[in-house]
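Checklist before submission:
- one chain only
- standard amino acids only
- sequence pasted in full

Submission:
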Amino acid sequence: MQFPLLKLAAIDIGSNAVRCQISAVLHHEDRYRLKRVEYIRYPLRLGEDVFATGRISEAKQAKFIKFLHALRLLMEVHDVAPNHYLICATSAMRTALNGPEVSARIERELGMRVNVIDGQAEASYINQVIEHLLEDNKHYLHIDVGGGSTEFNIYHDRRKVASQSFEVGSIRRMQQEEAGLSTEAMRETWQRMEDWVRENARRYHVTRAIGTGGNINKIYSMAQAGTALDKPVSRQRIAELLASITGMSMDERVNVALLNPDRADVIVPAGHIYLSAMEWADVQHMFVPDIGLKDGMLQALFEEHFEELRARDDHRPGGPQTTIQSRPTEVE
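Returned file contents:
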């Protein structure tokens, strides 16, 4: 039996990978929920081209368009309406000299609009799903490390009071290390990042850290193996795990630690950014909720179409006639 569900889709074009999540909007009584029905991640690695040459190569563009075409077909199969999806691109696309040209080509060939967002917009999306996880009277440093940039947010008593984006990310650091360069090659940016974290952590009395991003999720699952995955991970445990991975060859990381190849080479550079930020803020533990940019995008889509959703439910037999809270919870 067919049971119609309204679905929303978010496509996050990162410097390391492209992620697509399709979620169904569930409603019962006065509660809305988003249920994940499809999730795909592909390591396109736009950052490899952009951070090395400043441009997205023709070969990478062809693969990019082919993958987005596949996602368009997937959304059609799931009956995602043309105005019920959102595509956002971050550091690699906004850094690429031919980024506007590639975006125009995608819109021309596929009819899909790519929104190239800055670090502040990226942080704003993530804020929509982070803020309801915080406790009253607690002060947090939120760290989000991508392939090309790192976003920091300070939350003071459930309110974001400071934020900053830095063009320092896992792929950028990896490329520097492969070229034989050290952190000294970007000493000025690294020092500004350290100064910002130290100053704001002190000013707002930060005592806790929250980490988001694919690399910290993997570090967390490895560090907490055999224990509850709803507990914070210690700074010492992160340092021990990174030291262990650093000592492995790529073959061992893939075939012994069971890391995907596109994770195995960037996990250590990314991990050192998280670890350094914890040290600068003088915090000992980090919470790692399994959320990211795509979740904030889905929340934004839900809020954008909330009146449409409510009207749709109001006209169903027995549908609600009262005001409904427009913040859904995510369920698997």
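Reviewer check: The first strand starts at residue 7 and ends at 13.
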